[in-house]
Design a protein that fits this description.
By secondary structure, this protein is α+β, with helices and mostly antiparallel strands. The chain has 21 helices and twelve strands. The strands form four sheets. Strands 2, 3, 8, 9 and 10 form a five-stranded antiparallel beta sheet that branches. Helix 14 packs across helix 19. The longest helix is centred in the first third of the chain and has 45 residues. It is extended and about 125 Å long. It starts with a strand and ends in a 6-residue tail after the last strand.
């Protein structure tokens, strides 16, 4: 339960060593760089936007080239491929890549060019096919479609809507004789015609044709349709050949994937480095770097830099009013849940790191909500195998995730044993269905499905403990800050009121009947608790509006704060979700088992039995594990954090290697 202490670091070194120093700092990933020193007549900042643009362009080119290669030469990956993590490379490999850099950039651009060529040819094929589709009704017509007539005749080549016969056409144009009409093709939706008339009748014929919906072809070509369709077919064939050639050339680059991945990471790192350079103060021969570094990393970095370079390093504690980034550091049990705290909000300046205390409740609550030993065993065994088999390749974030679900699985096993749930009542069903007698593993404690009120009481008791733990942390924060007034007004009064109210409620017959409790609380204890509750209530009313100078406003704010006791009641009731989700898991398990038992009759009944059990329990595990995860987070964020945690801190974001495919194996960050 710790937030690492940060220190300010200032590094001054020769400009000709800037590249090596920045790359070393980047690989170590221990400094968050910022610029707090203003520019002056000697030291200034560099504009590196052009270089960053070029690098980002190369990164995108490599990324797109890899996507294209994956499309044409897909690689088979296993389900567990995500556990392999990034490939480890040496710094020598990274440095030597500069020799082949230009060639790989050219390869990436060539692949993009080939893909562009393919896209253009596919578009060309679509255009040519559209032309061919328009000309298809004219395939038997040898006259050019743009033929307008001769010296003495006018020509009309086009279409009429719907299906027309020669008789219908001649009837419409009877007054314009002599004319000659030829139907080229007739379909349900259009009729293609070729019409000749005298030159002097052209306008009149055109007017009549327009009135019956005549339109000219979409393609006005100076060739016969039959001949031009052959030209289009040849053009489509040529475009398809160009596509095939480009695709084959793309496939020939399949062995360059590793180089393209390295290019993407290489220029991603360089882009990050240039972003940092834009914040550095530089003169003609030296540069100055400032930032934050965890105190435990400062000495090692200082020693390494002094050994390899001529540098001046100044390390100091930040000013009290300075906003310092937050870096959490916890033991192996709690560290998997650091991301859960960060997702809510990093600790603020006056907060403590709640990760350790939260982890105790987190794993417990998750296990209670899933509460099946079989499901817990699957989670624990799966995560253990992943952690052991891929221990040398797992990324830190994935390692933490697997460890979190490992501990959640162990907790689920514990509560499953306590409640006697092993894939529900699967053992009972198997022995009763296939062996004629039932074998049952009894619970160590009780079965929630049979005693839901008992489970509800336990859930609420656990909720009260969880809430009181939050108030206890707030008490610790107040003592640490020596804010004894807030300790008394905002914590002690509430603890006295809540404890007294709980004892008074437990002494009533109504609560005893609802929860089946027989608590004989002595009358004197109830009287004392009532007095304490009144005193605490008065204290809350008089002190919770203390920031207001107006006595009436102070009283109203205090009264409203006292009304917040209803919020504590709703918080406790929220823990009934432990009962709801636990019962849901158990009941669905039993329903799945019963369905499988009903399908197990006959000689081949074992097959549907196994299928129903496998599919049903897989779905139940997935759905209820997700529900347990969501509701466990909700109980931490609302009921627990709401009692003491303010957050508002800023996470430590070091200048580091942010790559997708490769990582460096450094002594200090391995």
């Amino acid at each position: 339960m710790a937030v690492l202490q940060m220190q300010r670091i200032c590094i001054c070194a020769l400009k000709n060593k800037r590249k090596q120093i920045l790359e070393l700092i980047q690989r170590m990933g221990v400094i968050e760089i910022n610029d707090v020193i203003p520019e002056d007549s000697i030291f200034h900042k560099s504009d590196v936007s052009v270089s960053e643009t070029i690098l980002d362009k190369n990164v995108n080119a490599a990324k797109e080239a890899l996507l294209i290669l994956e499309q044409y030469t897909p690689e088979k990956t296993s389900v567990l491929a995500a556990l392999n993590g990034r490939t480890v490379i040496t710094t020598e490999t990274y440095d030597n890549f500069a020799d082949s850099y230009n060639r790989v950039v050219h390869t990436a651009n060539k692949i993009l060019s080939l893909e562009k060529n393919i896209a253009e040819n596919k578009a060309e094929i679509l255009r040519l096919k559209a032309q061919a589709e328009v000309l298809f009704p004219w395939k038997g017509f040898d006259v050019p479609l743009n033929f307008t007539g001769t010296k003495y005749t006018g020509s009309f080549i086009g279409t009429l809507p719907g299906m027309w016969t020669l008789e219908m056409i001649y009837e419409k144009l009877a007054l314009q004789a002599p004319i000659n009409v030829e139907i080229i093709s007739a379909l349900k939706d259009q009729t293609c015609i070729f019409l000749l008339c005298l030159k002097e009748n052209t306008d009149a014929v055109s007017e009549i044709l327009r009135s019956i919906g005549f339109s000219y072809p979409g393609s006005q070509i100076d060739q016969g349709a039959k001949e031009y369709l052959k030209v289009l077919e040849d053009m489509i064939t040529e475009a398809e050949l160009r596509i095939t050639q480009s695709e084959e050339e793309i496939r020939s680059y399949q062995n360059t994937k590793s180089e393209l991945r390295l290019l993407q990471d290489y220029d991603s790192m360089r882009s990050e480095k240039y972003e940092v350079i834009s914040h550095l103060l530089q003169s003609r021969k030296v540069f100055v770097l400032t930032g934050f570094i965890p105190k435990e990393e400062a000495k090692e970095l200082e020693d390494i830099l002094n050994q390899k370079f001529e540098v001046a390093i100044d390390i100091s504690d930040p000013a009290k009013e300075e906003e310092v980034p937050v870096l959490l550091h916890n033991n192996g049990f709690s560290s998997p849940l650091e991301g859960t705290v960060e997702a809510f909000s990093p600790p603020g300046k006056d907060d403590v790191d709640p990760t350790f205390i939260m982890s105790l409740f987190y794993y417990m609550l998750f296990g209670l909500m899933l509460s099946d030993a079989g499901y817990g065993a699957i989670m624990a065994i799966g995560c253990t195998i992943g952690l052991l088999k891929f221990k040398n390749t797992l990324e830190n974030s994935m390692r933490k995730t697997l460890r979190m679900y490992l501990f959640c699985g162990i907790s689920t096993i514990f509560w499953g044993v306590m409640f006697g749930s092993y894939f529900g009542d699967l053992l009972d069903v198997i022995t009763g269905t296939f062996f004629g007698y039932k074998v049952t593993i009894p619970p160590v404690w009780f079965i929630p499905v049979n005693e839901p009120m008992r489970m509800l009481v336990f859930s609420m008791l656990l909720g009260i403990i969880h809430i009181f733990a939050g108030l206890g942390i707030k008490l610790y924060i107040c003592i640490k800050k020596k804010d004894y007034k807030s300790m008394l007004y905002d914590v002690v009064f509430w603890l006295l009121l809540l404890i007294s109210a709980i004892i008074i409620l437990l002494s009533t017959k109504m609560i005893g009947d609802i929860f089946g409790l027989q608590l004989n609380v002595p009358g004197i204890v109830v009287t004392i608790c009532s007095i304490i509750a009144v005193i605490a209530s008065i204290g809350i009313i008089l002190t919770n509006g203390r920031e207001s100078k107006n006595p009436f406003k102070r009283f109203l704010k205090g009264a409203y704060a006292l009304y917040g006791i209803s919020g504590y009641l709703s918080d406790v009731l929220s823990y009934s979700r432990l009962l709801a989700l636990g019962l849901a898991t158990g009941v669905i398990c039993n329903v799945i088992n019963k369905m499988a038992g009903m399908a197990a009759g006959g000689a081949i009944g074992i097959i549907p039995f196994i299928l129903i059990i496998a599919v049903g329990h897989t779905l139940n595990l997935g759905i209820n594990a997700l529900g347990a995860y969501v509701h466990t987070n909700r109980l931490q964020y609302v009921e627990f954090f709401g009692k003491f945690y303010e957050g508002g801190g800023r996470m430590f974001k070091p200048f580091s290697v942010k790559t997708k495919y490769y990582k460096f194996k450094e002594k200090n960050n391995g």
